Amino acid sequence: MKPAAFDYVAPRTVPEAVDALENGGRKAQVLAGGQSLLLEMHLERVRPDLVVDINRIPELDTLRVVDGSLRVGALVRHRVFESAEAVPGPLGSLFSLAVVNIAHPPIRSRGTMVGSFGWGHPASEWCAIAMALDADIDLRGPQGVRTVAARDYFHGPLRTDRRPGELITSVRYPLLAEQTGVGFVEHRRTHFCFAQVAVAAVLTVDDGVIREARIGLVNCADRPLRAHAAERALTGVEIGAPADGYRLPEDHPFARAGRVAAERDAAPLAEPYADLEYRRHAIAVVTARALCQAADDHRSRAGGTKGDS
Ligand SMILES: Cc1cc2nc3c(=O)[nH]c(=O)nc-3n(C[C@H](O)[C@H](O)[C@H](O)COP(=O)(O)OP(=O)(O)OC[C@H]3O[C@@H](n4cnc5c(N)ncnc54)[C@H](O)[C@@H]3O)c2cc1C
């Protein structure tokens, strides 16, 4: 199918883009990487009157560390994060583990991280990581600039706190301390489709004890989620000896936390290829594996193979 007719502008500055969006009203769409928008337009599920192409605004194509946070501008492509060195410390490792699960290389070369927040899909890897890390979303609109915490940003499937006329200029993530362990595990039906379940796990370990766990759930509800109950179940627990995430005993703390995530945090919806029982089982298993990976990552950063730091 061909998209319905639309007007097109390509502003050179952020204020020009915001003006264009304001004039376009509710039927204006931002074009970033176009990897979601153009498909939706071809299927005529989205019919904008105006497309505001932001690809000629150089100030949006920046990746910077500012005051201990990573600021990702609206034109930074997914593919940038394939190298763990693109971002300092464990955050770079977490991003590089996650990004390879997003579609395939041509899509990652055009699609943007920030575009994922414009879209607000429950199966977005970036959005769940933003939930786990308490990231901030920076918006600029006709009324000025505002910042929304990730926990307040996602309202439901493809529904976010972004108001008509607003442009997301950047997303900011706190950098992670050097010995923080990170893991990201994804389960999907076939190559290149969205995650059935994916989990980001971030562990802060002190003297062999988990001081803080952060867990982000991908496609486990109608929006990206943080698994607060599973995190609480892990706080103060000994990290223990290395464990094989594929053969974890049922009473292992990570297996227990996985079940808590599945039963208490997640609110999965049945899908054609996965009923609720299957989905909850997958969430428990994938969460436990991501935690094992994060624990291993902590051990290697701390320079030992034992269960302590
Ligand atoms: C086959 C296929 C598989 C995919 N698999 C995955 C996957 O596994 N995981 C995943 O996360 N994504 C996946 N995607 C989506 C892809 O990663 C997109 O790149 C992603 O949604 C970001 O969109 P974009 O930059 O291409 O934005 P666009 O497509 O340009 O825009 C998407 C939406 O966000 C809005 N928007 C974009 N940028 C801004 C901004 N700065 N301010 C305000 N609104 C904005 C647009 O108006 C539009 O509504 C897949 C896509 C395809 C085609």
Summarize the structure.
The chain is of the alpha+beta class and 309 residues long. The chain contains ten helices and 14 strands.
Please give the CATH class of the largest domain: Alpha Beta
Count of separate DSSP helical elements: 10
At CATH level 3, the topology of the largest domain is: Enolase-like, domain 1
Helix content: 25-40%
- SS class: alpha+beta
Mean pLDDT: 95
**SS elements, strand count:** 14
What ligands are attached or bound here?
Answer: flavin-adenine dinucleotide
Q: Based on the structure given, which CATH architecture of the largest domain is correct?
A: 2-Layer Sandwich
Order of H and E elements = EHEHEEEHHHHEEHEEEEEEEHHH
Strand ordering within the main sheet:
4-5-10-6-7
CATH superfamily heading of the largest domain: CO dehydrogenase flavoprotein, C-terminal domain
| Dominant shape | globular
Oligomer: single chain
Tell me about the largest β-sheet.
5 strands, antiparallel
Number of domains: 3
Domain FAD-binding PCMH-type: 1-178
Protein name: FAD binding domain-containing protein
InterPro entries: CO_DH_flav_C, CO_DH_flav_C_dom_sf, Diverse_Substr_Oxidored, FAD-bd_PCMH, FAD-bd_PCMH-like_sf, FAD-bd_PCMH_sub1, FAD-bd_PCMH_sub2, Mopterin_DH_FAD-bd
Organism: Streptomyces kaempferi
